[in-house]
Design goal:
This protein is α/β, with parallel strands linked by helices and about 260 residues long. Helices cover about 45% and strands about 15% of the residues. About 40% of the residues are buried. Bound molecules: ligand T3D. The site of ligand T3D has 24 residues, from α2 and β6.
Length: about 260
């Protein structure tokens, strides 16, 4: 364990656990630096074929540790732009761009940057008791860590605005019904189900998954023509992969495929 982050690697699955349960896994700078380093390692490590992120204890992550943000009278205000530039934004970028699937198991409350880092994941499952809270407005801040990007795209402007302005808790069930996350599952089943999904992804054609991720994430900023061109280019590459040959062979031979991720 280092600085509130636990990491294990098993059969291609890298499990990252946010581990400051007495503070609902709120991030200190040190913990966030470790999280970033761990994400970068997972992105670069060829043994890692999928990532699963969860939280220890009853919360997923309560965002920035506000103990580190109290300002005594006469002291200068902290530079939150520096914090985003150097710690939160790199985490979002690495999750979004790493060429392997990132599953997030939201085990409890996800607030502030904790909520938006979860939403950066490729496939988000939440325990039924979990809640998503855009806490920023309650303390005079703006949703960060991609919140103003992900929320309108996932749930539309009206709901994004309501969540951001009111800072009300959204239940896991509503988050799933609104299309904010992939699904809500019973609390006792969350880790089992999220691990099963992440394991099946880790055993899949992960080079193809990387291309799927690239295409879906590019679509919001592309015209149809640009997206069709991107699909053509990615499919050309996918068609040359060993996993594609193996997938076709396994289908024709009526057997389970053995994907290698290349
Ligand atoms: O600053 C920058 O670098 C810019 C980036 C900012 C990104 C952000 O994330 S800003 C938003 C920061 N987060 C929040 O504003 C959320 C604050 N927390 C809460 O509103 C509530 O704790 C929750 C709604 C998340 C959960 O409520 P509840 O009632 O289930 O738990 P609790 O009793 O409030 O919290 C349990 C403990 O965790 C408690 O400590 P205690 O009293 O047992 O000693 C509480 O103080 C602590 N805790 C929870 N969140 C934080 C925290 N301590 C420090 N920082 C927190 N964010």
């Amino acid at each position: 364990m280092t600085s509130g982050i636990l990491v294990t690697l098993d059969e291609g699955l890298c499990l990252i656990t946010l581990n400051r349960p007495d503070r609902l896994n709120a991030f200190t700078s040190d913990m966030l630096n470790r999280f970033n380093a761990t994400l970068a390692d997972a992105a670069a490590d060829e043994r890692v074929r999928a990532v699963l992120i969860t939280g220890a204890g009853r919360g997923f992550c309560a965002g920035q540790d506000l103990n580190d943000r109290s300002v005594a009278p006469g002291e200068g205000a902290p530079d939150l732009g520096e914090s985003l530039e150097n710690r939160y934004n790199p985490a979002v970028r690495t999750i979004r761009t790493m060429p392997k699937p990132v599953v997030v198991a939201v085990n409890g409350v996800a607030a502030g940057a904790g909520a938006n880092l979860a939403l950066a994941g490729d496939l988000v499952l939440a325990a039924r008791s979990a809640k998503f809270i855009q806490s920023f407005a309650k303390i005079g801040l703006v949703p960060d860590s991609g919140g103003t990007y992900f929320l309108p795209r996932l749930v539309g402007t009206a709901r994004a605005m309501g969540l951001a302005l009111l800072g009300d808790a959204l239940s896991a069930e509503d988050a799933a019904n609104w299309g904010l996350i992939w699904g809500a599952v019973d609390d006792d089943d969350l880790i089992t189900e999220a691990t099963a999904v992440a394991r099946s992804l880790a055993a899949g054609p992960t080079a193809g998954f990387a291309k799927i991720k690239q295409a879906i994430n590019a679509s919001g900023g592309n015209t149809l023509d640009e997206q069709l061109d991107l699909e053509r280019d990615l499919q050309r590459l996918a068609g040359r992969s060993r996993d594609y040959s193996e997938g076709v062979a396994a289908f024709l031979e009526k057997r389970a495929p053995r994907f290698e991720g290349r």
